[in-house]
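Troubleshooting log. The previous run stalled partway through. Resubmitting the same two chains, unchanged.
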Amino acid sequence: MSGRTFYAAAAMGRKVRASALVASDGFSARYDLDRIRGTFSRPEHKLAGQSYHGRVLVLDAAKGGVATAWMLYEMKVRNVMPAALVLNRVNPIMVQGAALADFTMISGFDCDITKAIANGGEVEIDPQAEPPFIRVL
Amino acid sequence: MKLTGEEQAMRGGEFGPLRQWAIEHQIKVGNYLGAEDFVPVGQAHIMADTESLGPAGVEWLESWGKLPRAQREVRIPTITDPRGTDFAKAHRLKQQPWMLELERRAIAAFERLGVLMTDTCINYQTIMPPVRGEHVAYGDTGVVIYCNSVCGARSNFEGGPSALSAGLTGRTPRYGYHLDAHRQATLLVELASAPRALNGWGALGGIVGRLAGDYWQVPALVGIERAPSPDELKHFGAALASFGSVALFHVAGVTPEAMRLADVVPAGAALPTHEIGEADIRAFQERYTNNVGAVDLIVFSAPQLSLMEMQKLAGLLDGRRATIPLLAVTSPQVKPDCDRLGLTGRIEAAGGTVLSGMCFYQSYAREMAEANGWRRLASNSAKLVNIIGGYGYRPVLLSMEQCVEAACAAGKLDGTKLVGGLTS
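Second attempt completed without errors. Output:
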């Protein structure tokens, strides 16, 4: 899998390199996270109990409510946050939150990105490239 | 994005740095989501609780408050979602002084920006429902889905920063549900029978939400033989948005854009079709009741209760005594009527607590659980049940009647009654 590059429909933020935390599940800051501890807290989530701090989160779809738009900024200021968010499908809230927090996000692939990236592997995201991409290192 | 002269002037800073930030934020969002231009909006509704804002968000808001009034105030009616507390009852919830202080600072900061602190997620029932075709910028997924679907308005999910931006610029990027192309159905749901209780409608919303799976799906329901009540569609929509991140649904023959199913199904389209029956709704609810013998508290919230829900709750509690905490959360617009009509007094005489202007999950739910020793929570709101597990609770979805029964039986749940009450 090393060296493979996956191009995306849209992206924002800065270039990022970190290890991937991958699951075929959704993402909502309010529904899924203990933002103080920096862990997934919803018992049903496939990443329950795992720390997201500094990881590139690779998940299926944005879920839940509008709170994430504020919460990403608050997580960034406290410096307990993922390095980036990689989603098959976004909703506007994730985009709005990433825009406020100047957070790296990339979405829209021609494959299921949660099956294409191995959990724990090192990845690089370049949201400013044309087209933007995530690469397995 | 194509910008008008006024929009270019905002971007250039001619209307001050706050409006400049706002339109830059909107352009970033619009570019990501493929908007070609802006659309004027008539109202904005902002998520404003400090549990989501945090100290960082409040400080960010306060930093704009020093600008001259002409540069800092919103241009269109801009209202707010529930706060993180009811100041009059915060002590009963064991909320901490720092939470209340942060709320006070957030309120002051929003008011400096000209925002009306309405503190409600049922503005479509109490403040100013949008009309069909009106473009708006609403926060709170339950507000968006109800107004899009039942009122025929046009909004995307607008998180706090984006709803505030819309208030400041009077417009929002034209993508998603502002466009005709996105308002057509993408899946069909055939119902064998409609639910009869609010928790059943919420369970149905949860099932359809899971089937839909993401924001860009638009379910169309067929097989509903009577017009559901506004409260039924409120619970259905809130759960659908919560479980599926869905922002628009149609009900054939009921919602305004789907008087005929053919109005929302593209000609010749073979949409994915799902059948849902009472057994599915029952199974959905039973997933939340398995292995729970008793609960620590009852919460009616998410969405805030209408006057009619408050009346029903008061009736169920008449002559009874809740022996575990029972919280009924409504809006600041409904609460005075509840006071005037004696509903608050009846609920509280039975041991309940009526809260106003907050919503349970937006009110430091994790800290309240730790302070009060709460873990097992029962509610008739599928939305609340979906959310609250992430805050450390073990949620149970019951009917309003079952919740009252449990409240008056020291929290004990009767498994036989659970089945019978599902759709009553």
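Takeaways: The CA atoms of residues 52 and 82 of chain A lie 5 Å apart. Chain A has a mean pLDDT of 94.
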